[in-house]
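Quick one, T. Sequence first:
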Amino acid sequence: MKKLLIILLFLQLFFISCKKVNEEFSFPKKPITIIVYTGPGGLIDITARKFATVASKYTEATFVVENKPGSGGIVAIKRLLQLPSDGYTLFACTKSNISKIVSTGGEAYIDGIDWAAMMMADPECVITHKKQKINSWEDILTDAKAKDGDQLWLGPANGGLDHVTALKIWDEAGIEAKWIPFKSGGKAIAALLGEQGVAYVGNPREVLGNDDLQIATVSSSKRLAQFPDVPTFEELGIMGLENEFMWRGFVLKKGTTPQIKKWYDELFLNVNNDPEWREYWERGGIDVVYKGSEEFTKIVHNDKKQFTHYLQKIGIINTEATSMIAKLSTGKTLYFMVMIFVIIFLIIGLFVNRSPNRKYLSKIMLPLFFILLSTILFIISFSFPSNEKVGPAVIPRLWIIILIPLNVYLLVDILRQKREIEHKDENKKVVFGFIGLLILYLVSIFYIGYFISSFVFLIIGIYMLGYRNYITMLIISVSWLLFSYLIFYKLLYVPLPVGKLIEMIF
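Structure tokens:
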């Protein structure tokens, strides 16, 4: 009887634990934000809002679209990376984002993102003005050869997706032309209608509703059902352009749990197969195709290689000049370099400790430490995105601008006071204690985040420097955190580490 009771008790505990496991996953519990990198009304904005509408058929989740335009999507990506990887933030992305990431040297962003789902492939095409003499592909080809590189093509952005597509077309067709960039596709089309160029590179949907526009040729393996009279490049004898398209999809921050990712996978599939979703996009010649995370990631990395090649070719980027620094500045390598530097400096400190002039030398070590460390960070910061007005290099360079002059002044002051320092009885442990504190600060940022670590670091650091006015210490520390939050986080959208432990708790 006793054994039976024990077995029943274990069975009861087993079923309770199973029930608890099933009940533990309850997603979502709050609204899901979809970040869009353009203003309201853009095609990716329409994509995000249409997705939210169709998704409501398959989930009770609430979706909120948040527009974060700026720098070709970099601002929106930074916003995504600022937030926890809890699944409550989606980023609606396009192939154009890869172009901007590559052109600004921000390839690290690609590795910080979980490329969750590609939802459609919008074929690239060459659009012309019907009323111009040059409006067919044959006309474009003949005119290009006659003008010998002076033919004008129009489109949005220099080095963007459409520009790179044009470069591919010119290579495969054996022609040369000039690219005239505009701030938006709408302005480029207006310029085409104003006869400022002969061709516009875009997508088939852009000719709908405008009888003055026509598609000269399309990048597709077969003719589009919606535009049956439009020839493909392959039909015109140009190979290698049958798979050029603008993809659109959704991404999560890397680190999202497998359960949440599975929830999204099912939702993406349901939306992709929904008749309303498919009919809405297919009428514009878009291929409504779904690619999961693994296949989508391969496509993104291939796009990165393509953009790198062509952006180097036209001189927008020069990866050879910064390749060595870029390798040294990535993730674990950078962390390893800094730690090795600190260890070497501590070993030097042990020898200083045995020197007859240890009081004087230990005083010199602290400013030298910060000057050398700041110099290393300054050199590395040149591999960060630099084509933006603001970027990941902002924080280290601001610190460097403050640290180097202050430490040079401190070093000069110490050299001037050599005799006084040698005869002054001061605790040399403060110097090495401060270096140790810096090591702990660098490690703690990873686990408990920038804000908590910085607050503790500033309080302890100021205390170690001899200040005992606690109100002043608190004001200085809080002011710096407030400055970091308002300027770096809110205004510049620089991702400040949240901390692995904090993400687990919240």
